């Protein structure tokens, strides 16, 4: 046993002794684990520059240190033969640490590969055919044999409604469905083949309408609805950012009109109406006769 002082505070300022020198860190680690398991504090070190040059351990070995007061008990513990239970535990730990052997990959013969491909085709083709969307359209015809309505179903679910309102042979009204509920409708009001009126519907009853009244391809009328009852209407010529005119409704009846909108979003004229569409107030001098509500 070689005495070794801790020097600069190492090992809690206690005198230590080298009780074993091993050829590898693995063997030293097993011995240290045995001592620690029995409550004996120990240290393992070697002259290998902190593990950077492990080949240096071959010269001086890997040293196992204990406190001088524990040296006798540590040597006795390491020299004692292992019990059957300890041997069994060591064998179990060694088996767990050994990676399982992998069997070599067997190469398949060309016949096996061809059979696998054939079976895959036979199984997958019917599934793909069954899962492919099936679209069917049902038509309605007028008394003179003209097709005026159509219902498109995909996998037995309605996805689109078609209508030819002027019976010219071209569809001019389209309604699209999702899960049986109408999501969007489009109309071609001048029958030029292009939609110029667009409706969108929502679950909460708030719907919108965009309409191209001058048929130049840009919506200029925008309306909002709640439960299919109009709430507001705005006029935005050629898709301008700010409205030129805005109308407000209550229970579907016009109550107020703002006119003369500018590029700052301000309006020069505000007129309010009674339920019979009679003007009752305005912010500008007017030539028409204002009606005031009568008191009861």
SSE map:
Layout: E1 2-4, E2 16-22, H1 25-37, E3 42-46, H2 57-60, E4 62-67, H3 71-79, H4 84-97, H5 110-131, E5 135-141, E6 147-154, E7 157-163, E8 173-178, E9 181-187, E10 197-200, E11 206-211, E12 221-226, E13 229-235, E14 245-250, E15 253-259, E16 269-273, E17 279-282
Antiparallel strand pairs: 1-2, 2-4, 3-4, 5-6, 6-7, 7-8, 8-9, 9-10, 10-11, 11-12, 12-13, 13-14, 14-15, 15-16, 16-17
Structure characterization notes:
By secondary structure, the chain is an alpha+beta fold. It has two domains: 2-97, no CATH class; 135-282, Alpha-Beta Complex (Outer Surface Protein A, domain 3), CATH 3.90.930. It is 21% helix and 34% strand. The protein has five helices and 17 strands. It has helices at residues 25-37, 57-60, 71-79, 84-97, 110-131; strands at 2-4, 16-22, 42-46, 62-67, 135-141, 147-154, 157-163, 173-178, 181-187, 197-200, 206-211, 221-226, 229-235, 245-250, 253-259, 269-273, 279-282. It has a 13-stranded antiparallel beta sheet with strand order 5-6-7-8-9-10-11-12-13-14-15-16-17, with no helix packed on it. The longest helix has 22 residues, at 110-131. The radius of gyration is 46 Å and the shape is elongated. The N and C termini lie far apart (118 Å).
Radius of gyration: 46 Å
Helix and strand element order: EEHEHEHHHEEEEEEEEEEEEE
- Mean pLDDT score, rounded? 83
* Tertiary shape: elongated
Question: Ends: how far apart?
Answer: 118 Å
Low-confidence segments, given as residue ranges, are: 5-12
Helix count?
Answer: 5
Instruction: Briefly note the structural class of the backbone.
Output: alpha+beta
Which CATH top level class of the largest domain fits?
A: Alpha Beta
Q: What is the number of beta strands?
A: 17
Instruction: Name the strands of the widest sheet in spatial order.
Output: 5-6-7-8-9-10-11-12-13-14-15-16-17
Per CATH, the architecture of the largest domain is Alpha-Beta Complex
CATH topology group of the largest domain: Outer Surface Protein A, domain 3
What's the number of domains? 2
**What proportion strand?**
25-35%
Helix content: 10-25%
